[in-house]
Amino acid sequence: MLTRYCPLLQTLPRSGKPQFFLSKPFLGPDDTYDHTHVKFNFEDREPYKHLETHRVVDGVTRARIDSKTTLAALYDPKGSDDPSIDNKLIKHLATTVEPRVLCQLETSHGKLYPPSLPDSQCSYQIKVTYSNLFLAPVLRLECHFVKPTNRRSPFLTLGVDFHFNEYIHGENTEISSYTHTEDGIIKFWTGRATCSGFNLIASQEASLTAKDQEVINVLRSFLEPNTRHHVTLHLDESELSSSQKRHLDQIRFRLPGGSGFLLPSIGGREYAAFGGTMDGIWAKKDGMMKPAELLSGSAPHPMVPLECGPTFSTMKEALVQLAYSAVVSDAEAYESLRLWAAIPHRAQVFTDKDFIVLGVNFEKFDRLGGKDSDLQFRLPRDLACSFVLVRPGSTKLEVDGFLMTGNPGLPRHDAFFRITSHKKATFAHMASVESRKCIVKCKPHYSSFTYNSQLETIRELQLTDNERWRDILLNQRHDKLGYVDLTAGVNPAKKEKADRWIRNWRPWNPEQLAVIEGVTAAKGGMSIVMGPAATGKTLLQQALAIYFYALDFHVLAVAPANDNANKFARDLLEAKIELPWLELDWLEDLSFNRLFPSSREIPVDEMSEKQAYLRKVGHTKGDTLPFPEFLLALGGDTKEKGAHREYGIVEAVIKAAEEKKYVLHKTLQSEDGAIISRDYNAWDVLRTFMSEYRAGTLDLANMWKMRQYRLAYRACKGQIVGLNRLMITTTGNVRSREMLQYWFSPESEYGLPRKGVIVLVDEAAKDLEINVWSAIVCWRWSDWVQGVFLFGDDKQLQPPNTSAKGETQFNYFSDRLDIPLPNRLVQEGYPCHFLLEQRRMHSAISSFPNRKIYGGKLRNGPDMNVTINEQMPGLRNVLVDIIAEEITNPAKQDRFRKIVSDADLRRHYVEVKGTRVPHESTKSMIVHEHIDVFFNKIFPKLREYFRSNDKSMNKHVMIICGYNFARYEYQDRFKDYLARNPSLTTQDIPRVLSVDSSQGDESFMVFLDGSYQHGDVVGFMGNEHRYNVAVTRAKGVLWIIGGDMRHRYKRSRPRALNLATEYKLELDAAGQTHRFS
Prior knowledge:
It is a single chain. About 30% of the residues lie in helices and about 20% in strands. Strand 7 (about 125-130) and strand 8 (about 140-145) form a beta hairpin. The chain has 34 helices and 40 strands. By secondary structure, it is of the alpha/beta class. The strands form ten sheets. Strands 5, 6, 7, 8, 9, 10, 11, 12 and 13 form a nine-stranded antiparallel beta sheet that branches. A seven-stranded parallel beta sheet has the order 24-27-23-28-29-22-30, sandwiched between helices. Helix 7 packs antiparallel against helix 8 (about 450-460) and helix 8 crosses helix 22.
């Protein structure tokens, strides 16, 4: 046996199952960390020494982990140089063991693959390694296929994992009789293996030889169920160094047959630290395991970052990674907010606006990771908070408020809240500035609705009803998935007419037409459509929504953000107006709704006093549209525009009540619960309430009557939702009570037949995978889901991963949050429709992203080469003037005016020398000089052009900011500008968006201010996905405001330039850069 590199282990006997546990919590008299609380009852402490020596601590207090700990600051073996800990061993046990060892695979018939070693002529190599040994140990065979011209870079890699533990109940899938001899031969019996890479075989078929196919068939035989295989591997370690052999032996000592102690993860359940069954876990908010529990089992959690990839080895692995990446992410958000609220902050009340504003300056407070942590802190958007205002010599005052997105024109503070619970008269006695200064104690209202929905999704993924999605979830064998006709069971005559309509509705290009024709053959019932901006993804979604709606399906259209959902609703409304209904003669109308609280569409600083008072935070008992939303809509300005005014649920309720469109019989109860009537019309009760509310005669003190009004509203709202067959909402709201209780109700409830559900997910590559599954496997309609369409762009923004990364990390599976569902499916060869014809950007603007990001595969649609003046008459001269006035040499200025081309004006770099300044609290960035140049040198001429031509600047011009600090500054300056010019409106100023909120949007002219000056200091604007979004929003003109992009630190110049620097260099070379003072 292999013992030569670990003398200690030669003397240790083979033991049974080791136990790892936390002793009783203890704090010394000086509140120091008790260094004896982690103990083992076995001698092999090396794999867990980082735990025993307290390198893993409570992520909030930095003290030891105990039963109250919600976050553990993980140990990173890659970043540690502690000589007392074997970091290489920990890394190998947590990830995949290196190096992979060359070997031959011997079949039960004695045939060897490859026939000899070394074999420089063979077109493949087989290597053996181990993976995930801490939690779900496997022996992995990797087969690398190479071409004669490039033997270093495999064109195909197949992975086969043999599990040391049984992972399918009753199938004997585990390794048994495992031996590893001195002469390098491994033998064992095993059941069904799991795999990766096999989905890519078909795409590489032309490059595979007959011998390649032979070894593939051998490897594929290990994947068959209910079969035991005998595996023999002949290892070739001749190329390994002594150091590499020593590290490998440290692993082998701890495997079956080794001379050391058996790894505690072998012989039990996979991912045993997370509890649950062999292939399932507990998923409930109050039942998720905390760090102390994860450390208390027989195979403890190592508390290090763990690997995540495009495939899941088992169902248990999928559930653990999806669930606990969400668990830790939520805990980070909650604890960050709790720490902020744990101490009083300084504040000032401002009464000189139309409403009360509370400006808060943060005192120094503990951050996640400890007092000296440099982790960024940002208050959640739309945060609602209760405050206790404390002033010397005055009584305490309790108020409620909502976080404002920017500075409302007041002296700088870290945050501003609009007070919604009290009127201005409450603060009339605060006459002086000093009297308005106070100390505030904060009680934030934390919304856990999304987190609860994610856990519910985990629970439902384990149900038998959703087994059909498991092969897609695991992403190992697409060949096991059949093709599904999503139109199966529909009336043939209707289908023929609907087919004719959808094919003729638009002049589809070949890729779009392939999506439409693919509805009769969707792999596994799921179709993926990927494409850059403006390639027609949204248009296809509209067409498919109308098509399946016309075929009597329920259609659920979801998106990760309200902006995306609102845009789809607006586009669908325009499509509805132009639809030729005569082709779909059985369809009277396209009736759809947008599930969205109208209070979210009105910025908190633009709400009336009454609207602000009625606004509530989050989901009230699971409702997206609670009673206050109804009151807000009743009292709102009828001239307001927005999604809620045109197709919102609440507006539909009001309209139906006014038109006396429905009757809904319910039981009426008296104040003491006695039944007054079993057959009263809820709509009549609601109309009575609306009349009293609008007339101001409502008796709010009559609790019984108000209860009946609330119940009537809920019942009528339920009927509107229950009669809906095309619902548009977000993945965050898809599990609201309105959806779970009323949408897709049985026909007996509202008389609406149920044929099936089609789920359309917009921007699926931008959302967390667990949120995408939430809309698919929801218990209300999961049995009826006929098909799913995922739309997105894998080159644009990834899901929002807010978990800490770097020196301080808490999330064991942080990388899982970075991998969207469609991306990982396509990466493993899942069928995908790629859209390649873009119809937004002028060809001059599309050139850079096409070459640098999309590999030159895009083509421009028709009319992508028209001139600026054809699109915006007279704008060309304005752009020339803006640039020319910065050229101080008269001769050069005159020459510029003569030779400047449309292409020079369409994309231009406005070079500004400035200083990059971080925000004191959030660390968000700004370059004030960029904003000064825009307002002093660019905005005046553009404003004059749009005003004189009676065009909306808001519609045609957009500013995209890389950082919120800069975005808020732009917005504040525009607010001041409008205040100084009361004759102007928001239509006279550009829209200001972040990169994230701009995805899915567009404008004729875009200014990009990434708040960068130097090429080596660009922050997250160096992210390729983020930069791609920023430079693909412009249809006609893209101007970038930034520094000279020279590297600030001479030694920090990276080998590969980021896209922001590359674009600047390209514009420099084309003469499309000018310095603005």
